[in-house]
Design goal:
This protein is an alpha/beta fold and 560 residues long. Among the domains are: 252 residues, ANL, N-terminal domain (Rossmann fold, 3-Layer(aba) Sandwich); 118 residues, ANL, C-terminal domain (GMP Synthetase, Chain A, domain 3). Helices cover 25% and strands 27% of the residues. The chain contains 15 helices and 30 strands. Strands 13-12-14-15-16-17 form a 6-stranded mixed β-sheet, with helices on one face. A 5-stranded mixed β-sheet has the order 5-4-6-7-8, covered by helices on one side. A hairpin with a 2-residue loop joins strand 26 and strand 27. Helix 3 packs across helix 4 and helix 6 crosses helix 7. The longest helix is centred in the N-terminal third of the chain and has 17 residues. The radius of gyration is 24 Å and the shape is globular.
C-alpha cells in the first residue's frame, strides 16, 4: 500500500535530515540490559524507522489515527516516534510506570488504533485497544491488527497532529496537549538558531518518555545532528551510577529537572569532577534552589548552565544562561526573553501591556510554536488560546500562560508565581485538582485540598480532607494506596490529614497559603481524628492567591 506523502515540515524529515549528511554518526548512544554502551548510527536508526513504517503502513491506518507508544526512551522507541510521524499517525507516549487507571483514561480519551509497547514489557490486560503490537531492534510485531480503515488522506500536512502529550488536568482527569508538525518543527528550528546543541554533542535525556522534556531532548539532539543519550531509570537512582554513565558515554550536555542534581550535590559532589567532557546543563520544570545552583556552578567550573522556561502548550518559551558567577544578592533567576521567533508579553489585570521595570503581570506568549488545542476540550482550549491583547483585530491567537512575571531593568522577565493552582513536583506539571478529585472519590470524603509544603529545603505534596459527619473515619494508608493506583508516583501526597474544615479566603476559595502552614506544623491537626470533630468556623484570610512554587517550567509537564 502506498504511503501518504509527508510535507517538508514533518518531524521525521527534520530529525532524520542528518542521516543524509552524516549517516554513520551516532544518533543514539544507549546502554543495553547489561549496562554495555552501544551506538546506533543515523543510518541504522533510519533503517529501523522505515521497517516500522512499512509494518504500520500495511495496517491501512489513516492519517490522524492515534498510536499509543509505551516505552522508555531508546533507539527503538525513537524509531517508533519517527515512523508514526512519517505516516501522519499522532503518537501518544506513556511510561511503563504509568498506572493502569491513568492509561485506561488516556486510551478512553484518544481511542487509539494501536497500542505499541517495547518488546520487554508485558501486555496490560486491563487496557483495551483495538490493535496491539510490540517493537524492538528486530522489528515491529503486530499481535492484534486493528480493523482496516478507508484511507481518506493522501498526504501528511504541516498542520496535522504530530503528537499528543497528556498532562495533569484541573478537572481531575489527564488533559491532552495536541501539537502539530509545524509547531514542533518550527520550535526545533528555533533551537538550531539559538545553538542549544550541535554536531558532536552527546545530549543526555533523563525524563520519562511520556513527558515533553523527553521529546524536547530527542528533538534538540537529532535536529542538530548530535547523539541522544538516554539515561536508564536504574542509573538515575544512584549518584555514582548516574555520573559513571554520563562519564562513560562522553556526555557533553545534560537535560533534567533541578532535583536530578540534588543527591550528588549533597552526598558525592566530588564525582562531578569526572564529567570532563560536559559543556552545558539545561534545567527546567521546577525551581532550582539558588544555594544548590551556586554549588553546581562551583563544582562544574566553566560549564554553561541554562534555565529553561515554558509550558507543554509551546514546548518551551525561553532558554536563559545563568550568570557565572551568580550575583551574591540574587533572589530569583531571570527567564530572559523568548527564544528565536517568539515573544513574551506581560499584561496586567487591567489588560494593559506592562513595560516599566518592576511591573508585574501575566505572561502571554506570541509564537508559531503554539499547540493546536486540548484534545476534545474546546472550552479549556478557548481559555488559554486567546486574542492578542496588543491587537485583537487581526484574529491571531496567543497563549495565556497563567504565569506571573516581573519586568526586569533590561526588559527581561522574572517568574514570580502562578495565577492558578498548578504546581511543579520534581519537574512534572501537576494540577492540584486531579489529586483532589482522586481524594474526593474516596468514601466519606466530602472535600479535599492539596498543597506544596516546604520540607527540608524542598517542597512535598500534602493533602487535607474533610469527612462526611463526625463519626466518619479515614484509613490513611488505604487512601494513599488508592492514590498510588490511580496517579503517577510524583502526584501521590506524602500524607493525608483529616481537618474539620478547609481554611477559606474572603472570596470563599480554599486558602492554600494558610493550609500549607497548617500542614507544615506536625502538631496542627492529627492525621486521623481521635474523637468526632466538632464543626469549626472556616479560617478566613485576606490574602488570596496560589503558592508560588517554581522559577522554571518546561512542560511537563508539564508533561511533557
Amino acid at each position: 500500500m502506498e504511503r501518504p506523502l509527508a510535507s517538508a515540515d514533518n518531524l521525521y524529515r527534520l530529525l532524520m535530515g542528518p542521516a543524509a549528511v552524516s549517516p554513520d554518526a551516532p544518533a543514539v548512544v544507549e546502554a543495553d540490559q547489561d549496562g554495555v554502551l552501544t551506538e546506533v548510527s543515523y543510518r541504522a536508526l533510519d533503517v529501523l524507522t522505515q521497517q516500522y513504517a512499512d509494518v504500520l503502513n500495511g495496517l491501512g491506518l489513516d492519517v490522524g489515527d492515534r498510536v499509543v507508544i509505551e516505552a522508555d526512551t531508546s533507539a527503538p522507541a525513537v524509531a517508533m516516534l519517527l515512523a508514526c510521524s512519517l505516516l501522519g499517525l499522532p503518537f501518544v507516549t506513556v511510561s511503563p510506570q504509568t498506572p493502569n487507571a491513568r492509561l485506561v483514561s488516556i486510551v478512553g480519551s484518544v481511542e487509539p488504533a494501536l497500542h505499541a509497547r517495547a518488546g520487554h514489557l508485558a501486555r496490560r490486560e486491563s487496557v483495551e485497544v483495538e490493535g496491539s503490537a510490540y517493537f524492538g531492534p528486530a522489528g515491529l510485531v503486530v499481535e492484534r491488527a486493528p480493523a482496516r480503515r478507508v484511507r481518506r488522506r493522501r498526504a501528511v500536512l504541516a498542520t496535522d497532529t504530530a503528537y499528543i502529550v497528556f498532562t495533569s488536568g484541573s478537572t481531575g482527569r489527564p488533559k491532552g496537549v495536541v501539537m502539530s508538525h509545524r509547531a514542533i518543527v518550527t520550535f526545533l528550528r528555533a533551537m538550531l538558531h539559538d545553538r542549544l546543541a550541535g554536531p558532536g554533542d552527546r545530549v543526555a535525556s533523563t525524563s520519562p518518555l511520556q513527558f515533553d522534556f523527553a521529546l524536547f531532548g530527542i528533538g534538540v539532539a537529532l535536529a542538530a545532528g548530535a547523539a541522544l543519550v538516554p539515561v536508564r531509570r536504574e542509573d538515575l537512582g544512584s549518584p555514582r551510577r548516574m555520573i559513571g554513565f554520563l562519564r562513560d558515554a562522553g556526555v557533553t550536555q545534560v537535560h533534567g529537572v533541578p532535583s536530578l542534581w540534588r543527591p550528588v550535590l549533597r552526598h558525592d559532589p566530588q564525582l562531578l569532577a569526572e564529567l570532563r567532557r560536559l559543556r552545558s546543563v539545561v534545567f527546567a520544570g521546577e525551581e532550582f534552589p539558588l544555594p544548590e545552583l551556586r554549588r553546581l556552578q562551583q563544582t562544574l567550573p566553566g560549564v554553561r548552565l541554562v534555565n529553561g522556561y515554558g509550558a507543554t502548550e509551546s514546548m518551551a518559551a525561553s532558554f536563559t544562561d545563568v550568570p557565572d558567577p551568580l550575583p551574591a544578592g540574587l533572589e530569583r533567576l531571570s527567564i530572559g526573553h523568548a527564544h528565536a521567533g517568539a515573544e513574551m508579553t506581560v499584561v496586567d489585570e487591567r489588560g494593559e501591556v506592562v513595560t516599566e521595570p518592576g511591573g508585574i503581570g501575566e505572561i502571554y506568549l506570541r509564537s508559531p510554536c503554539l499547540f493546536t488545542g486540548y484534545w476534545n476540550d474546546p472550552e479549556a482550549t478557548a481559555a488559554v488560546l486567546v486574542p492578542d491583547p496588543v491587537e485583537s483585530r487581526h484574529g491571531q491567537k496567543v497563549l495565556r500562560t497563567g504565569d506571573l512575571a516581573r519586568v526586569g531593568a533590561g526588559g527581561d522577565l522574572v517568574f514570580v508565581g502562578r495565577c492558578d493552582h498548578q504546581v511543579q513536583i520534581r519537574g512534572n506539571r501537576v494540577e492540584l485538582g486531579e489529586v483532589e478529585g482522586t481524594l474526593t472519590r474516596l468514601p466519606s470524603v466530602t472535600a479535599a485540598a492539596a498543597v506544596l509544603v516546604p520540607r527540608a529545603g524542598d517542597h512535598v505534596l500534602m493533602a487535607a480532607v474533610v469527612l462526611d459527619g463526625g463519626q466518619a473515619r479515614l484509613d490513611v494508608r488505604a487512601a494513599l494506596a488508592v492514590c498510588a493506583r490511580e496517579l503517577p508516583a510524583y502526584m501521590v501526597p506524602r500524607s493525608v490529614r483529616v481537618v474539620p474544615e478547609l481554611p477559606l479566603t474572603v472570596n470563599g476559595k480554599v486558602d492554600r497559603e494558610v493550609l500549607a502552614r497548617q500542614l507544615a506544623s506536625p502538631t496542627a491537626t492529627p492525621t486521623t481524628p481521635a474523637a468526632p470533630a466538632a464543626p469549626a468556623v472556616p479560617t478566613v484570610s485576606g490574602v488570596p492567591g496560589p503558592v508560588a512554587t517554581s522559577d522554571v517550567r518546561l512542560a511537563t509537564n508539564a508533561n511533557a
